[in-house]
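Hey, I'm writing a tutorial for new members on how sequence and structure tokens pair up, and I'd like a real worked example in the thread rather than a made-up one. If someone can provide the structure for the chain below, I'll link this post from the tutorial.
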Amino acid sequence: MVTKTKLYRKPLQDRGIKPTYQRLRILEYLKKHENHPTVEMIYEDLIKEIPTISKTTIYNTLNALLEKGMIHTITITGTETRYDHKVSPHHHFLCKRCGKIIDIDIECPYVGKKEFDGHRIKEIHGYFKGICRECLKKKDRS
């Protein structure tokens, strides 16, 4: 049986990142919480388990994971940076009522292309905004 520590240790080591306890816990947090957390959200949850963890450690770890292509940032709200462990091409949906960010897998004709109309593509971000199905159901029950 593969332990969680081993599960997250190898990807870090393979990318030249020293697998400290804090880094392992931050990576595990990102994999477990698909809510696209902010640094503040990660800090508030992990400080309960690791009283010595700092926001600086979280920022530094996230930056290292970003540099090595292990995570992505999302700026769908325009006011905060969120972090996503899913690095394969996908889009996001922001519920304007509850604030939840949801991964959506839809076909995008530009994914995988290196150029478009003479322009070189470096990144593709697809954001949708509206009201999520849970919020719509709550309103219908009101």
